[in-house]
Amino acid sequence: MTDQVLIRPIGEDERVAWEPLWIAYLEFYKAKLPQETRDVTWRRFHDPSEPIFALGAYINGRMVGIAHYMFHRSAWTLGDYCYLQDLYVDETVRGSGAGRALIEGVCDQAKASGASRVHWLTQPGNSPARILYDKIAEDSGFMQYRVIF
User: Fold this and answer.
1) CA distance 129 to 71
2) How far is CA 17 from CA 65, 105, 114, 133, in A?
3) Single pTM value for the model
4) For 31-55, what is each residue's pLDDT tens digit?
5) 85 burial via Cβ count (<10 Å: 0-12, 13-18, 19+)
6) Sign of CA dihedral 16, 59, 107, 143
7) What Rg do the C-alpha atoms of the chain give, in angstroms?
8) pLDDT at 1 over 60
9) What is the spatial order of strands in the sheet that 5-9 belongs to?
10) 52 forms bridges with which residues in the sheet?
11) CA distance 141 to 138
12) Under a CB-based contact definition with an 8 Å cutoff, are residues 82 and 70 in contact?
């Protein structure tokens, strides 16, 4: 029998558990953020005036995955969209259902908030994640372009 995955908002007192997962996610995408950005991001998760949120996946009381999501307006719908910005599950528990549970948790939050969709991005070469994504969502066929300042 596999251990059950619990999904819930990450508490203000859980930064020590969250930050290694966040850093591992950034390393996976070969990204580095200054400490100041990590500090501000953490504060935003717990500021009721901010539209960005963090869920944790827990197995046997240990945080093993994270999902960061936010709501934004759309010119195409009356309801907001929900952008699942970051999703990461510790390598030691991949295949446990934590990734799917995090996505479902974000979808539950989006539905409860009246959002009309959840969307996210991934790199084409992220094959293990795409196997899961292809099972639970549709590929929009769009490519992302950026102008970075």
Assistant:
1) 23
2) 10, 19, 30, 25
3) 0.92
4) 999 999 999 999 999 999 999 999 9
5) middle
6) positive
7) 15
8) no
9) 5-9, 52-59, 62-72, 81-89, 117-119
10) 70
11) 9
12) yes
**In the chain, what are the domain boundaries?**
5-136
DSSP the chain: -PPPEEEEEPPGGGHHHHHHHHHHHHHHTT----HHHHHHHHHHHT-TTSSEEEEEEEETTEEEEEEEEEEE--SS-SSPEEEEEEEEE-GGGTTSSHHHHHHHHHHHHHHHTT-SEEE----TT-HHHHHHHHHHS------------
Is residue 134 within 8 A of residue 83, CB to CB? The reply is: no
**Tokens representing residue 116 in the block:** 């009309």
- CATH number of the 5-136 domain: 3.40.630.30
Contacts of 100 (CB under 8 A, 6+ apart): 132, 136
Contact present, 90 and 100 (Cβ < 8 Å): no
For residue range 66-105, what is the model confidence (pLDDT) as tens digits? 999 999 999 999 989 999 999 999 999 998 999 999 999 9
